[in-house]
Amino acid sequence: MAEAPNANDELYPIAVLIDELKVSWPDTCSCHDDVLLRLNAIHRLSTIALALGAERTRDELIPFLDESVEDEDEVLVALSEELGNFIEYVGGPSWGHVLLSPLENLAAIEEPVVRDKAVESLNKICEELSPQQVEEFFIPLTIRLAKADWFTSKVSGCGLFTAPYKKVSPPVQEQLRQQFGLLVHDETPMVRRQAASNLAKFVKEMPAAIVIDEMIPLFQHLVQDDQDSVRLLTVEILIAVAEGVPKEQQASHGVLLTSLRNLIEDKSWRVRYMIADRFEKIAKAVDEEVVSRDLVPAFVKLLKDNEAEVRTAIAGQIPGFCGLIDRQTLLNDIMSSVEDLVSDTSQHVRAALGTQISGLAPILGKQETIDHLLPMFLQMLKDEFPEVRLHIISKLELLTNLTTVIGIDPLSVSLLPAIVNLAEDKQWRVRLAIIEYIPLLASQLGVKFFDEKLSNLCMGWLGDTVFSIREAATHNLKKLTEVFGVEWASEAIIPKVMTMGNHPNYLYRMTTCFAISTLASVVSIDVIAKSILPMLDKMTEDDIPNIRFNVAKTYSVLINALQRLPEQGTLYTLEQQGTQAAQTTPSPRGQELIQQRIVPNLTKLQKDDDVDVRFYATQAVAEARIHIYSILLYPYSSHGIISSSSSSSSSRPPKAQRRNRLPLDPPKRKGRIVDPAHDAQLAVGVVLEPRPQLGLGPVAARDEEDAAAGAEQLEEASAVGLAGVCGWSRVCACGFGGGEADGVKGALVEDDVEEV
């Protein structure tokens, strides 16, 4: 840690960082107690290490850090994490062992978060060490921590046995197993708990013979522990041991099955909960005889457990476990207990059942599904608690499973009426789930059934009092259009949506705007021209300002759609075509609709009395120009875009020449509109000048003459004000009809101009 060099020295900034790191530790200077300052110093360790080089980092920085482990927990966590990624800064994996000492100290800290991060970093470093380094440096560290007097070190040591196990020789492996056995028998519950937590991972590194001879006795000892916090962790060990021992040998190890039965019948509900929550994994790990003889009765017993938490956990295992047993066993032994859960006293149990019960349909078959599952569905859809109803309908694969098994008719006769009733549920989240379920239901039932039974329901949601429902209803219409096609939408949906635009309640009229914006990608240019634009024409005159500025927003969406729409089809069909869509030419009719039907209304809205309406109308115009057109700059002079070198009025060609050249000059550059750009906000040297014209069409000669008679020009002209140009044009090239358009925000900035 060298003395600070001269300020001109290139290493001076690094020296400053090192000094800041020094004074950041509380035992060095008590006045620097800002945790953020010390955290920043830790996060710059890599910068310091790069500047020092690998050798000085090993010899100076790491020893300094090794002595500086007294600090706030947040700082020590950050230090532990940094050291885990520090191998490249100390010279590579061959020098990785020098990082073990500070991490060993951090692994003995009292705060669990610091210890956990230190153990994580130690294991990460161990993965990059050579077997020789592991045996020489890492194993002694692990043994020291495991044999320490204080439980915090032992707890950390429990997590350091798995990573080095495969890298060391058999004698060292045996030493590790023996030391881990001592931790399993430790007198401190905290140590035994951590040993149980890590034993499952440790077992997976061993062959079956060692698991049977050495690990099963450790598992048996932990299963009999007097602390339920230890016993509940043995469920994962049971699964790991069962997966490690071949299934044909499991029956000969009675201790394993006895321990399983003891856990299933444990007096602590937390242990039974862990068994219930992992029941499917346990069943997959043991052989079929154990499943039929032991696990089926245990499953039924857990379904009837006294604790609601246990019943909730086992309800989540129903389809997975039932898929492992034969259908007759399910019907005879389990199904009656599952049916009892429908009327369980705990709403959480019923809700958990609702999310899983549909998985039984493929297992049971058609007739049993109709006899057993369908009544359960109907009863749960009428449950008094909304969460239960929500869970039973939010499982989207429910419909697919049922229709595949029982067909459409039983579904439409029995289940559909209950679902329709939920469409008006008092809980809006239930209504929302039903809305999201409708497109899938419609695709199964077909157009005719939907029009007869569900069409009015979908339209009714558009007038819901909750905004989230109205918003979801508009997206629902879009999905339905994707399912049934544009022709169906133009006949069944669009007319009803347009009728809402005349509704006396402004929420309905507002929803019309939202629906049009959402449907823009799934309707054709004919639908827009014949149905949508006439309604928006009326809505621009609405008395409510919120309606008018939402009309402006809707116009922006439509312009974007019309600019890309082909003569036939929709944007959705273009997306479905993929690469073929790039070869589709947008319809000229779309540009015509923009110029003749939309732009005049936007111009009118820009003069609205309400400031918000003017703002959104102006924003729609500006955004539309950005997205629709490549805004081309047609220069009046023959030298291209006006710049500081060509901005004086003396550089102009004669008026007659300009009049003749203007419509024919090819575009030299294109630019983008920057919003806002009020002339009062423009920088010094920027001028609103008429010589450049935003050309989207020919400009009449008299307009060019009017522009030439404009304001005096400044020498440093670097921007063209869109408002100024539009104000000087009677038939503006920007697409605005007659009159001034001095409400337009935006400027074409030379810095943002690129060559075409």
Automatic annotation (TrEMBL):
One of its GO terms (molecular function) is protein phosphatase regulator activity. Residues 643-673 are annotated as: Disordered. It holds the Pfam family PPP2R1A-like_HEAT. HEAT repeats lie at residues 99-137, 215-253, 256-294, 295-333, 334-372, 373-411, 415-453, 532-564. SUPFAM superfamilies: ARM repeat. Coiled coil: none annotated. Residues 377-564 form the Phosphatase 2A Regulatory Subunit A helical domain. Gene3D superfamilies: Leucine-rich Repeat Variant. GO terms for cellular component: cytosol; nucleus; protein phosphatase type 2A complex. Keywords: Repeat. The keyword Repeat applies. Belongs to the phosphatase 2A regulatory subunit A family. This is Phosphatase pp2a regulatory subunit a. It comes from Trichoderma arundinaceum.
